[in-house]
């Protein structure tokens, strides 16, 4: 058994999304053959992606046909965000064109949902003027401090959390101009000890202002998730967010439609309070993935953590599905980037 023989067998494994074999895609980083032991390194960095799990299973089946002793190791690509954010494999921005569409709700559930899928996850609340992610993600301690005065983010439900809310009084308003926002945002992510993360979810403020531009100019994003509600005014503003990311050549991982409908617990009928289908139509119009419609559900606003922690609602099921789809779409983006 030699390296070339192993490589030839690996070439029979096809990426189901990109429809190219993993050798031609450049996903096989290294092959080692030592007697009967085969060790293969695959560039797969979307932890929690069912597609990437399937690729690994297919590789293991191929190797099992060659030897009883093998090891398949997932490694990240060479462009991990090691200089700015520590060892962070993927950075996902959650954005909306307007306020009040449930962007922070989606961010906290996405981060927690990815953690439920076995990923190491951080959540950065970049909404300087209205930081409330810590309240919505669940109870956390205050940040710790390292010997070199870097902040250690506290954890909630397996998610490391950092927010301006930890650094100001509970009821103190933040009244800053643009340059101050730029300074505090860059200082926050420069001075946080995130450690090794599969995903860092960044909850952006509404709109297309200073914080968004600072982020786009400072951190290479893996992709963005756009949150909207079904009605026209939200869709109009969400389109501005799409254009912002397009101008900065940032991949959009998909669109989420929030507050899609309310099912009456008494009669069982669905009331489309904010209209219906607008988010899916927006995704179709821009040829982007539609990640799902989250219904209005009291479980989403419960005080005991994100809805994905609970198994008793339609909204929780949709939010878990959204986290799974985001992981898969991150995988497509990163594997295409490697190729």
Describe the structure in your own words.
The chain is an alpha/beta fold. The chain is built from ten helices and 14 strands. It has helices at 3-10, 22-25, 50-64, 103-116, 133-137, 178-190, 210-218, 232-247, 278-285, 314-338, and strands at 28-34, 37-43, 69-75, 88-95, 121-125, 144-145, 151-152, 155-156, 159-163, 197-203, 223-228, 252-263, 270-271, 290-296. The strands form three sheets. Strands 4, 5, 8, 9, 10, 11, 12, 13 and 14 form a nine-stranded mixed sheet that branches. Strand 2 (37-43), helix 3 (50-64) and strand 3 form a beta-alpha-beta unit.
How do the helices and strands line up, and which of them pair or pack?
Elements (H helix, E strand, L loop, with lengths): L2 H8 L11 H4 L2 E7 L2 E7 L6 H15 L4 E7 L12 E8 L7 H14 L4 E5 L7 H5 L6 E2 L5 E2 L2 E2 L2 E5 L14 H13 L6 E7 L6 H9 L4 E6 L3 H16 L4 E12 L6 E2 L6 H8 L4 E7 L17 H25 L1
Parallel strand pairs: 2-3, 4-10, 4-11, 5-9, 5-10, 11-12, 12-14
Antiparallel strand pairs: 1-2, 6-7, 8-9, 12-13
Helix pairs in contact: 4-10, 6-7
